[in-house]
Amino acid sequence: MLPAEQKFAMHQAIGKSVNYTNPISRYYMADGPNSLTDGIKGTFAVNQFWHGIAGKDLIATIDLGEEKTIQKLSLGCLQKYADWIMMPEWVKFEVSIDGEHFSEVQTVQNTVSQQDKTAHIKDFTVSFAPKKVRFVRATAEVLEQLPKGHAGEGKPAWIFADEFIIE
Fold this sequence. Notes:
Layout: E1 7-8, E2 18-20, E3 40-41, E4 51-54, E5 58-79, E6 90-96, E7 103-109, E8 120-140, E9 158-166
Antiparallel strand pairs: 1-3, 2-5, 4-9, 5-8, 5-9, 6-7, 6-8
């Protein structure tokens, strides 16, 4: 049974495979390799819906299977300060027809303070004029060192992401 705060997102990438440049931690696989495209948005429970990567950028590419017209992209990320999970510095969205040559749509900067100790879920979102694409990639830049004053100060942060929405 899903928690009461659970939200669903219907979009064009549901059920599509996700190719990760850097592997997901075996400790934070959520419900499997394609949790980013299962239509279920993560909550503050870190082990159920989130894919986690420690000390490396999250780079996720989705093949939509055929050319589709899209105009909005979003990647949900989590910050839980005490658990060493920090928002990415930024998220860059790119698109491609052939899966080899990508063009940047937009980079969205993080607006959540690295010193904020309350848990946050943030959707990094871009809207744009409709484009025909087949491949979509999101790159979330890891915070290389936990901030000054953090219990893990100087050590690499974790990135937690869930639901890569393509509309």
